[in-house]
Every structure is written in structure tokens, then in C-alpha cells.
Amino acid sequence: MSLLKVSGTKIVDEKDEEVILRGAGLGGWMNMENFISGYPGCEYQIRAALAETIGAEKSEFFFDKFLEYFFQESDAKFFSSLGLNCIRLPFNYHHFEDDMNPRVLKESGFKHLDRVIDLCSQYNIYTILDLHTAPGGQNTDWHSDHGGHIANFWNQKDFQDRTIWLWEQLAVHYKGNKWIAGYNPLNEPTDPYHTRVIAFYDRVYTAIRAVDPEHAIFFDGNTFASDFSHFGDSHKKWENTAYSIHDYSTFGFPAAPEDYVGTESQQRRLRRSYEKKREWMDARGLCVWNGEWGPVYARKQYEREATEKINEVRYHVLKDQLSIYNKDRLSWSIWLYKDIGFQGMVYVSTKSAYMTKFADFLAKKHRLAVDAWGADVSAVQHVYQPLINHVLEEIPEKFRDLYPAPVWKLSDRVGRLARNILVAEFLVNEWAAHFAGMDEAQLDELAKSFLFEECEKREGLNKILTDNATLVKEA
Hints:
- The protein is α/β, with parallel strands linked by helices.
- It has 18 helices and 13 strands.
- Strand 6 (about 180-185), helix 7 (about 195-210) and strand 7 form a beta-alpha-beta unit.
- The chain starts with a strand and ends with a helix.
């Protein structure tokens, strides 16, 4: 065990020997997400709806058991057996602070975070602490848990002040823990001004360093960790700092522009997308960490006989991305470790209590495309296309590209607001109604669906990751 630090373009240990971090994100756990954990809308919405349906006490019982079962020693043991050595831990600020009682630390937030950090250390797994949800919402999407499409974190200084305060508390708590590879202070910012994110990074860097001068810091690029073009010489003020890209490829998703077969032009497109994200760092000799990446996968209950063929294509994309990363000896964290079957290395069995109870609801949610991530809109596009056409007809072209364009196309914006916010909102109480009348034993049984022992393994994905980890180790 050795404290890690950033040295030039590399992450090194206390002997200045290079350490390449290969791992996954524990998404859907302390920052729940609709497509990962199996609900509509945002986490704060389902927590409120469940408390209303079965009472606050039972609701808290269920969510605490969910957190307990989602990652246990068997998960850490399996993860380590694959040759992987780092887990990124996304968490929601709500675990540590209430909006109605700001700047009062909830010590209960450390209960599961400490537990998982300790479990990982027992199996030689480093962890990276990732603030995935900040007050006001630091980005325009569901996973910053604010229920809208405006990232008000960038519009109200108090939201930023509260986040600085939180990182001061976290740094005090985790200072000196050598199994923590570093802090990832803000996931996927979407600052429409492109300058406030840099000013915030200056402030959070200073606040953390005043408490903890040793841990590495991982700063995401703006616009979903894709854009460092406005960062200029800001890096000169930040020591022991790496820079995080999120390198998702459209070839790994249902909306791929064409079938991926690995042609020279397709591989060139993969490389160019990746290289563009890291241009700023490469020009300055800085360390790059790929904090999120990876395809999504077909599921037999939806894609049926086409499932295996689709997934072979997705594995092809995965392998070609890894080939690019290996040439740069890149540290990475694939998205993600565990879910209900769309992207995880392990996933909740369709025979489990949770998946059985929610099978029809999840099928409806899939058909309505109310989750933005990897949505298949084919069954409902006829509903939304007239609205898209209306905007195209009434709004001059020069006014159509609203930030975060071009990452969000016009059709994406309509989908986010109409499907993923509006329609999803109407499904929240329907989700919660499935819990009505359940006692604690039944709630516990539902939560146990997320135990490692109740999950299936995505063997194709895991073999690719293991083979890659072996290659990197031998190199």
C-alpha cells in the first residue's frame, strides 16, 4: 500500500514507480441513477415518493439496505480477482447535507462510504472519491439529481460555497488514507460560461490543499468532461493534479451512426474523439485519467434474438478503445460495475425479487424511453417528432444551438425535457406504488436482489477487462 501522486503525465507510488489504475465506477449506489438502479426520474423524487407511500421509517430502511447489499466483501473479492485495482465511488451530497439544513454535516453519510473504502483496501483496490451530485446541480442531466435541465450550480454562488464546505469536511475525514487514490471534486460540469468552472476549481483546490496537501486531485473537463479548451494556463496553480476525460463512443450505443465493424475510418473516428478530449493536457505534459467510458449492452427481454449479435459489436468497440488506451498507458475507470442489466460488469438477475416485481414497469419505462442513457426511442419517436419539427419550423437555425450543444442536439434537448423530465415525473408515483403494503422483511428481500450472490456476470466484458489488465501488468 502506497500513497499515490501525480508526477508529470503519470500516476506514481511513493517509490516514484508508475501505477496504472484500471477499474470501474460504482454508479447507482451512493448516487442512484434511473437506468442503473431501476426507477424513473431522479433519486430525490423516488425517495420522496417512497416515503409518502410506505412512510419515512420503512423508506429509510429500504434505502439503507440497498446501500448495504449493493457492495459487500464478495463484490470486492470478485473485482480484485479480475486484476482490477481501482474503483471510482460516485456519491450524492444529500448523504452529507440537507438542503433545508445546509452546512450541517450528516455523519451518517460516512457509514457506507467508509465501509466500502475499507473493503476495497482489504483486496488491494484503490478508491477515488467522486462528488457526482452537487447542490443546485453542476450539470444539465438527471445524474446531478436536481430534476431540471438548468445547472444552477453555476448561477448561484451559495451552491458553490456549500460544495467547498463539503470538500473541506471530506478532506478532514479522509486525510492520510493511502488507499484513496484521490479526490474527483465535481463530476461532468456543464458551465455555460466556460470560466466559472475554472474559478470554482481554483477555490476547491485551495480549500482541499489547506486540509490535505497529499491526495491527488482529478479535475473533470467542462461539458461532461470533454472540453478543456478554456483552461489556458490554469494548471500552473494546481500541483499533484490529473485531468479527467469521459470517453464514451457513439458506436457503443443504440443511436450509433452505423454498425461498427472496426474499419480504418471507424477506428480513426474513435482515436480522434479520444485525442480531441485530451489535447489540452498533451500540449502541456499533464496527466490524463479516463474517468468514464464504455458501451451499453442489449438485453434478452428487450432485444431478444438480436441480443448476442448486438453485444458482440459492443465488445468490438470496447476492445478497440482499450487498444488505443494501452498505447498511452492510460488509467481508466469503466462505467460501470453493477446495475440491472444495461451496462454493468455484474447485473441483477431477472429472476430476483426486484426484477420480478418490476418487470412490467421496467418494460414500460424502456418502451417510453424515459431514461436518457442509451435510449431506444423507436417506439415513441412519432410522439415527439412533431414537437421537434415545430421547433425547426419556428426557430431560426442560428438560435437553435443552446448549450450544451453540440453534445446535446436539438432532438436531445426535446427528449430530455419532454421524455426524461416530464413523462418520467408522472411515473415516479407508479414506481413507488409497487412498495405499498410491504413490511420490512419484504423490503429487505427486494433490496437483497442487489447482492453479488443474486447477480449475473457479464462474462464477455469481464474477460476483456481481465485480459487487458494482464497485458498492462506484463508491459
